[in-house]
Amino acid sequence: MRRPSFTCGMVGVLMLIGIVQVVRAQWFDTIVFFAAAAVVGASGLLPASSGRAAPLRALMVGAVIIGAALCVLPRHSGWMQGGVIGVGAAAPLLTWRAASADRRPWTAGARRMAAAWAGMLVIGCLWELAQFIAGEIDPTRPSWALSDLVDPMLGDTLGKTLFIAAWVACGAFLLRRGVRR
């Protein structure tokens, strides 16, 4: 099983994103990413769970309910932020239970998928950093954060619903690592 190297890689990605948040002076985001790195790093020290992995059907039903709730909440509201933080806090716990319960190594496909997601996070992080630096160098030049590029698509209910549906479906898939039982 390649879990220790994968855990180290994920801690590294989260730390890089945290460092970008320090450069951007986004202190809340800094705390979130460094705390996530600490949790992921500590997860390698946790004993195996004796619980069973959550069934895929239960994850999908939960994802639909959470997604529906998030679709009706106003964007950037405290309720929306709380919902996103709740999902983010629950995901590592569910992942740890699932990984401990089935005790199977990740398949090559699951490792490639995880590496692709980590790569997209790093690319997004580098984009944000480059745009931040460009804005600091020449404040008159527009710099486009990823949220600025995505916001027009999320401005109406349909766009927000499609985005949230894709987000929770991908999250449920990642939690189960694409395993079919």
How does this structure look, described?
The structure is a single chain. With 181 residues, the protein is mainly alpha-helical. It has seven helices and no strands. It starts with a helix and ends in a 5-residue tail after the last helix.
Number of strands: 0
Mean pLDDT reading:
75
Helix proportion range:
over 70%
Helical run tally: 7
- Shape from CA axes? globular
Structural class: mainly alpha
> What fraction of the residues are assigned to beta strands by DSSP?
under 5%
Q: How far from one another are the termini? A: 20 Å
Strand count, sense and barrel status of the largest sheet are: none
Regions with pLDDT < 50 over 5+ consecutive residues? none
Task: Determine Rg (CA atoms, Å).
Answer: 18 Å
Give me the strand/helix succession: HHHHHHH
